Amino acid sequence: MLLELKDVEVRYGGIRAVKGISLEVAPGELVCLIGANGAGKSSTLKAICGLAPLHAGSVRYAGEEISRTPVHELPRRGLVMVPEGRGIFPQLTVEENLAMGAYARAGARIGDTMAAQYEAFPRLRERRDQVAGTLSGGEQQMLAMARALMSEPKMLLLDEPSMGLAPMMVQKIFEVVRDIASRGVTILLVEQNALLALEVAHRGYVMESGSVVLQGDAKELLRNPRVREAYLGEAKSA
Hints:
The chain is an alpha/beta fold. It has helices at 41-49, 94-101, 110-120, 122-126, 137-149, 167-182, 194-200, 218-223, 225-231, and strands at 3-12, 15-25, 30-34, 54-61, 64-65, 79-82, 155-159, 186-191, 203-208, 211-217. It contains 9 helices and 10 strands.
């Protein structure tokens, strides 16, 4: 397995946000983590990257424990997170933001990698000299994803990439997610839009109140009555 979480617990003061969950992601997989707002999904991603306190359990990446690894070291190991809210540098241009994404690579074929991002995200090429803070929400999400890909990651952690976007842009972002996965990048996707997440994923985990309550093949979860009622808005049949 490329990523393995075992009995991970996250606490904020006396609040248990993540209650001893275990999950795994194999190389080349696209795995989604779905659930309602406040279920503990984002806290799980933050625990993987060391951005949330790991109260108990272990996080292993590429066979090594990383729970005490400095956050800035993880991109050098190929593990990169695109945070909820995008986290771009609003005062820098699109191209400067992309260059920042390659900080861990120190000049190695950065020009070629940037050209590849402009090929994958033509809208960013059109706006390469534009200040990032003036982009639309969808364009900022594209920039955040392209910046993460500048480090040539083995694995991407995507936190709510569709949040706050218009429906047409949501579809575009998920097309991009599918394309990234098709290139062999392993992805752990946290997403409230359960339908789209399960449609693009190989496997899924469902979180409720800090715990994993369901897991399995994404297509099987799409057919699961409990998932359809709770997350896809379908009522129970009489």
